[in-house]
């Protein structure tokens, strides 16, 4: 069986620093037409047509839509709980508000699953430098599960205090998340790791 060394596989885009190299890459060693022994110029030229290149701006928009949908659904839930405090439990409106509360929670779970549940992990792999990716990724995972545990721990305590107030707090957190993504999450499409790191300085 003959083995040909040095031939490029056009179906497998080249990688640099763990990120795919786009035609807009300003790095002289990796931009379109550059001479690179690991990434032949013909492979680099084909990258812009590759379906595997992640559009990070689309991910950021998905996160904003997800967090906004979560905030809206949780707001509906909190309003329903506030209204139920002034309505007789025997009335039809009380039962309707209960169904609205359940529907709002279901919509929140769906919005989370389609956006904030997965997108941050993809963005994290794009913005973290190679030299700290393992440590920073571990810290981010720890923080994620710590706050998940904290929410689980305090939910019943908050519900005993105020059901409407509990979901109002959750709504505020989702609104803050949407603003955070819009303001502080950098655009990574077509940028080198050095340019992404410069955004945080």
UniProtKB/TrEMBL annotation:
Its main location: membrane. The keyword Transcription regulation does not apply. The keyword Electron transport does not apply. Residues 1-12 have a biased composition (Polar residues). Residues 1-189 form the Major facilitator superfamily (MFS) profile domain. The chain crosses the membrane at residues 65-83, 95-123, 135-155, 167-185. It is a multi-pass membrane protein. It comes from the Eukaryota. GO terms for molecular function: transmembrane transporter activity. SUPFAM superfamilies: MFS general substrate transporter. Residues 1-42 are annotated as: Disordered. Keywords: Membrane, Sugar transport, Transmembrane, Transmembrane helix, Transport. It is found in: Membrane. GO terms for cellular component: membrane; plant-type vacuole. Belongs to the major facilitator superfamily. Sugar transporter (TC 2.A.1.1) family. This is Major facilitator superfamily (MFS) profile domain-containing protein. It comes from Pisum sativum (Garden pea).
């Amino acid at each position: 069986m003959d083995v040909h060394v040095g031939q490029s596989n056009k179906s497998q885009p080249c990688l640099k620093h763990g990120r795919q190299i786009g035609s807009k890459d300003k790095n002289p060693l990796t931009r379109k037409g550059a001479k690179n022994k690991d990434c032949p110029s013909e492979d680099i030229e084909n990258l812009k047509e590759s379906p595997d290149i992640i559009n990070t701006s689309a991910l950021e928009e998905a996160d904003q839509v997800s967090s906004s949908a979560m905030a809206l659904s949780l707001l509906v839930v909190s309003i329903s709980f506030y209204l139920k405090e002034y309505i007789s439990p025997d009335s039809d409106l009380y039962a309707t508000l209960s169904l609205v509360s359940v529907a709002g929670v279901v919509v929140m779970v769906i919005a989370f699953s389609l956006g904030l549940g997965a997108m941050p992990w993809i963005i994290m792999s794009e913005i973290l430098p190679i030299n700290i990716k393992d440590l920073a990724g571990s810290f981010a995972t720890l923080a994620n599960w710590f706050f998940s545990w904290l929410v689980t721990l305090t939910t019943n305590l908050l519900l005993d205090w105020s059901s409407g107030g509990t979901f109002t707090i959750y709504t505020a957190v989702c609104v803050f998340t949407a603003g955070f993504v819009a303001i502080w999450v950098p655009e990574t499409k077509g940028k080198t790791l050095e340019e992404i790191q410069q955004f945080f300085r």
